[in-house]
Amino acid sequence: MAVLMLSAWALPIVATGNSGAADNEGALVSVGTESATTDDFYALFGKNAQPDSANMRLLADYLRKLHEARRLGVISDEKLPDSVRRLAEGIAVYEVTRISTVERAARDSAGLEDYFHRHRSEYAQSQPRFYGSIVLAADLRTAQGAARELLMHGIDRMDVVEAQRLTRKLFGADLRIIRVAVDLGRNPFVDYAVFGDALPAPEGDRAYSAAVGGYVLTAPRSAADVGERIESDYAAELERCWTDSLRRALPARINAAKVAQMTRR
Question: Could you identify which of 59, 80, 115, 144 might form a hypothetical disulfide with 85, taking C-beta atoms 3.0 to 4.6 angstroms apart as the criterion?
């Protein structure tokens, strides 16, 4: 049995091999060329589980995604030992789901913007949020000087490691540079450098901070201002739509006699 835990589903799913569904008389559920047996069901849900609608729906959806993975060539029909083949099937379902949802959301900038405008109220901010970088140093003069140098050298075009290398070269000091998108009240060094709050307690030998460029918003203007959260939310919507389309294209065939046997046991 192939058991796969996917964060998008929050449940492990089990599927059998690629024997033809129409020819598999022992199948409990068949979808396209994929099928699952009664033993598969109990291996997944436990020996005392009942074949209720929720459990059968989860199993059928997994089989649909396995069918799609095989159709797209994510998994081959190569003959493999059962344990290897079933692991390969689980990996293929993970991969076809990632390609169809997470990967698509990451590259679909227009779709992300559309999703943001349709769900703008869900991303409201209770506090102003700073988007930018801060420098932490042992004294205020060094922090502010490093911030000026980073602006002059175009910190937006650097990664953090490159920016730290530059400040060490110029100031010979152990500075810390942090890129943030953080609300007022969530980071004391940002509160001090950006919002004018009191000096926070030192972090090691770094007690002062200075903002490097950036901007403050009271509400996000676009998907980019929300960050990874909206990408995850959009991917979840894509998976719902994709799963619904697979359900319409690939109806599941349920063996009613086997369901009745399982219910009576």
Answer: 80
